[in-house]
Structures are given as structure tokens and as C-alpha cells.
Design a protein that fits this description.
Blueprint (H helix, E strand, L loop, with lengths): L1 H24 L1 H7 L2 H22 L2 H8 L5 H37 L12 H21 L3 H24 L5 H25 L11 H32 L4 H14 L1 H23 L2 H35 L9 H10 L3 H13 L4 H25 L2 H22 L20
Length: 429
């Protein structure tokens, strides 16, 4: 069992770190062929993709994750089918919306840098591909198919960067080459997920009589997803609107975020392995199981802090050897961003406890408060100290979100955080 868990951790870590490393190693190419303004356009494009993905998913991924082991196979297949169809219809509706609002969005957020506003129609298409990929990843993870999980996500990343690099370097596309790479990889991964579901009879298209119940049950999850993505993305919108150099400042900030955000891949790998175990251990309701959760959380936290420290120590090397000189102003923000993600460990544990107890509204409400705090801080700090204010805002907001969610979860399930200080305590290791 332990060996299997270690192997799964290795696969999940590989599926997260390797694509990140692959993309990072290509940064010297991207930053020498793309200007900070190009990077800024891509960053705002990505903000839209990840912001509307929850609107397309409508909480489907989290719903499937929670219900996966509760529903019989036919009902689960029906839920997955309903989720995919709903995501497709939502994506089409958003394509129409971007068609009519494209010119206005181009003017307000891109400073008319897009040659053709119709490029924005591709945003819902990419978001739909990512949405289906999220559903597929959860299914593969819950099926303990770590190799399939690795293949899906690694293949998606390789295709994205391969297409992007070829279009940018050989065909002299600018930001458009990266966008087309995203479109191709997201649609291919969605297609592979669909084929897998059909082949394994994991999807069914039957009329869902409980749509209203579905939407009601996932509404807090949708709100939470939107607010968390808002926290992660609003800084780039504020920089674009309030920054001295608009999209250029967004590009510099995005590179700093890319390097500092390497911490996230370690967090995601750990989460893919330990989150299912948290639910299992909580269900046991024993002192020993709670002690195991505490012990693993501390180890996870120390690991993430170590990665953040390593990034802070090596950031100068990254900028000297991998990043173009036009982006060097972003170096001072890397450490702030890296340590802001440390608090995700607290949030994820608190969130899992709340979900286990059926209290999804609790983290949702906390995330709304965190989002409001983030908006206020971004406005105040960016206006006072510039782009660096966005990084500081992210750090403070993530600290509030993580600490508050974990504290609130302890009102539902009290964990023995200091049990190891008692010399009389014995636990299974």
C-alpha cells in the first residue's frame, strides 16, 4: 500500500513538475521572441480562460469528485454525461458573447493590441477543453490510474509547447502562436478524455431529471471556484488598467508569477495523492487517523516551504540564464509570490474537512471575503507602489484564505495539532 502511494506520488509529481519544467526551459525562447507586451496579452487571455472555466464546468468537476464513490456506475456515468453536455452548451453561449463584446474587451483590457478582436472567441473553446480535461483527470485519479493521469497531462503540455514554439520561431507568430498551441492541446486532451469515457462506459447521455438539485448543490462550489480564480487573476487585470505600462507590466509580472508559481506543482502533486486519503482517514473517526492527518500535513507544509525557499535562493540564476533582460524587473516579486502559495496547504486541508462534513458553503463564504480583500488590496497597493503591490496583495489574501479556512474547519473536526508534544502519546507511523 505504501509503495503504491509512493509510486502514485511520483507519477503525480512528474505530471506536474515535468510540464512546468518543460515550459520553464522554453522560457528563454519565449522571452526572446515575445515582448513583455506579448506576454501581457497572453496573461490577460489566460485570465479569461481560467475565470470562465468555472462557468463552463458549473461545479461539475468537484461534484464528480465528491459523488464518485457514492453513486452507482450508471448514475455516475449519467452525471458525467450531463456535465460534459452542459459544459459544451455553456462554451457555445460564451463564444457568442465574446463575439459581440470582443471589440469592447479589446479596447478596455488589451489597449487595442489585438489585431482582430475575434481572437477572443477562442477563449471559451480553450476553457471547454480544460474543463473536460479536469473531469478526466479526476476520474483517472479516483480510479488510481496514475499512469493515465500522467499521460493525459504530460501529453497535453508537450503538444501545447511544441505547437507554440514552432509557430513562434519558424512561422514568426507572436502571442497568436501560443494561443493556437493552447487551442490545439486543450481540444486534443478533451477528445482523448471523451474517447476514454466512451471506451470504459464511463459516460452516458440520459435525460437528467435532477438538474435543479445539481445546480443547487454545486452553487457554493461554483462561487468558491470563481472567487479563488478571481484572487489568482484580478492582479493582472488591475495591472493592465492601473499600471504605468499596461500590458507590458502584466507581462513582467506574469514571468515573476511563473517562476514563483512553481511551488503550485508540488502542492498539486501532493494534493492528488493525499486528498483522497484525508477523506478516508476522516471517515475512520479515530484518534490515530487524526494524528496521521496532522503528521502528513506538517510534512507537506515543510516540503512546500522548502520549495519556496529554494526558488527564492535560485531566482537570480533563473533570470540571468533563462529570462530575457526586458523582464528582469520582475525578480523582486518572485519570493513574495512563492511564499504566498505556502498557505494553500492550509486551505486545501480546511476545504477537504468542510466537504467531508457537507459544509461547502463555509469555504465558499470565506473565499468571497478573501476576494473582496484582494480587490481592495490590489487597488490600494498597485496605486501606491506599482506592480509589486499586486504580489503583496496576493500574499496577504492567500494567508487570510488559508488560515481562515483551516481555523473554520477545526470547528467541524478538531485535529490534535500538538499531539506529538505529549510524551505519553502513541500513534501508528
Amino acid at each position: 500500500m505504501l509503495n503504491k502511494q509512493k509510486k502514485d506520488l511520483a507519477y503525480y509529481l512528474f505530471s506536474g513538475v515535468v510540464p512546468s519544467a518543460f515550459g520553464f526551459l522554453l522560457v528563454p525562447i519565449y522571452t526572446r521572441y515575445l515582448s513583455p507586451k506579448d506576454y501581457g496579452i497572453l496573461a490577460i487571455f489566460s485570465v479569461f480562460v481560467f475565470t470562465i472555466r468555472p462557468l463552463i464546468l458549473m461545479g461539475a468537476a468537484r461534484k464528480i469528485e465528491v459523488e464518485y464513490f457514492k453513486l452507482v456506475k450508471t448514475k455516475l456515468a449519467n452525471l458525467i454525461g450531463f456535465s460534459v453536455i452542459n459544459s459544451f452548451v455553456s462554451a457555445i453561449a460564451l463564444c457568442v458573447l465574446f463575439f459581440f463584446l470582443g471589440s469592447w474587451i479589446n479596447e478596455q483590457l488589451f489597449q487595442n493590441e489585438l489585431q482582430n478582436a475575434n481572437w477572443l472567441i477562442l477563449i471559451p473553446i480553450v476553457a471547454f477543453g480544460f474543463a473536460v480535461n479536469s473531469i478526466g483527470s479526476i476520474i483517472l485519479r479516483n480510479n488510481k490510474n496514475s499512469i493515465g493521469f500522467l499521460g493525459l497531462n504530460l501529453g497535453k503540455s508537450i503538444l501545447e509547447h511544441l505547437v507554440s514554439v514552432l509557430l513562434i520561431t519558424l512561422f514568426l507568430f507572436n502571442w497568436q502562436g501560443k494561443v493556437l498551441g493552447l487551442v490545439g492541446s486543450s481540444l486534443l486532451s478533451a477528445t482523448l478524455v471523451f474517447i476514454y469515457l466512451v471506451a470504459t462506459k464511463g459516460i452516458a447521455f440520459v435525460s437528467n431529471k435532477n438538474k435543479g438539485i445539481h445546480y443547487k448543490s454545486v452553487l457554493p462550489l461554483v462561487v468558491m471556484d470563481l472567487t479563488i480564480l478571481g484572487i489568482e487573476s484580478s492582479d493582472r487585470i488591475f495591472i493592465s488598467v492601473m499600471g504605468e505600462n499596461g500590458t507590458e507590466d502584466v507581462g513582467i509580472y506574469s514571468i515573476a508569477y511563473l517562476i514563483g508559481g512553481l511551488v503550485v506543482y508540488v502542492i498539486n502533486a501532493g494534493t492528488n495523492v493525499f486528498s483522497p486519503d484525508v477523506f478516508r482517514l476522516l471517515a475512520l473517526k479515530t484518534v490515530e487517523s487524526k494524528q496521521i492527518i496532522v503528521r502528513r500535513t506538517f510534512l507537506f507544509f515543510i516540503l512546500v516551504i522548502g520549495v519556496a525557499v529554494l526558488i527564492s535562493m535560485t531566482k537570480s540564476l533563473a533570470f540571468d540564464y533563462f529570462i530575457g533582460p526586458e523582464f528582469y524587473k520582475g525578480i523582486e516579486m518572485v519570493s513574495i509570490i512563492a511564499f504566498s502559495f505556502v498557505f494553500q496547504v492550509m486551505f486545501l486541508l480546511g476545504y477537504n474537512i468542510c466537504m467531508f462534513k457537507g459544509k461547502s458553503k463555509l469555504p465558499s463564504r470565506i473565499s468571497v471575503l478573501a476576494f473582496i480583500l484582494n480587490i481592495v488590496l490590489n487597488y490600494l497597493l498597485i496605486s501606491q507602489i506599482g506592480v509589486k503591490g499586486a504580489a503583496i496583495s496576493t500574499l496577504i489574501t492567500n494567508a487570510f484564505l488559508g488560515i481562515s479556512t483551516l481555523f473554520a474547519s477545526q470547528l467541524l473536526v478538531k485535529l490534535p495539532w500538538l499531539y506529538f508534544l505529549d510524551p505519553n502519546t502513541k500513534s501508528k507511523h
